[in-house]
Request: fold
Amino acid sequence: MAIIIGKETGFKSEANEKFGLKCPYCDIYAYMSPQSVPSFDNLTQTRPKHAGLVYECDACRAPVFLRFAVQTYAEDKIELSPNFTELERPKERFNFSYLPEQTGLLFREALSCYSNNNFNAFASMCRRSSAAALLVMDETEKLKAFDELLAAQKIANIDDETFGPIKDIIFSAGEGDDLPIVNRAQAGILLEVLKDMFYQCFVRPGKLNRAIKVRQVFSQDDDQIQSSA
Ligand SMILES: [Zn+2]
Reply:
């Protein structure tokens, strides 16, 4: 998406002035329309390396701030890089209430690192989160957790080379601090497989047990009403 700010023509974008992005406010993947764009004259005066543009989310009408690197200053136009930085990223969500206390605390911070594009800080916090989770598991539960991780790899069809570092981050706790360096794509996979592992190990059994307990309480109440009638 090359963006041009022309001296005479003003703002022009190849992507028909609209493009899709996950909105940090409504969490919907929506079209973004340009709302506020710096003028050619203002940029030419100070020639900053970066320019900030405000887009409007088509779904919730919130302003979304994006920062672009300026590629070229020419006589009649300014060209911005097609890549941009989102100043506010959508928050990653998880049902933390079913996690063991310390795991929940650490995983919440892990997701905050991910939302802020700090992928290696995220990977470090994932290791701390999984180490805290493994501490409260017995041997059978640990094996189950490992099986869930391998199942996720199979379901998502992730090759061994990609999955190796992710498995190390989650399961090599206590084996030194030599965590692999991860990029955005690997961090995305790590996020989804660890969420899935925590879901299978804590959220699913927690929810199921709670739901069954509620059913039992209601059926006991029914029995008491019937026997007293
Ligand atoms: Zn929105």
Observations:
- The chain has a mean pLDDT of 90.
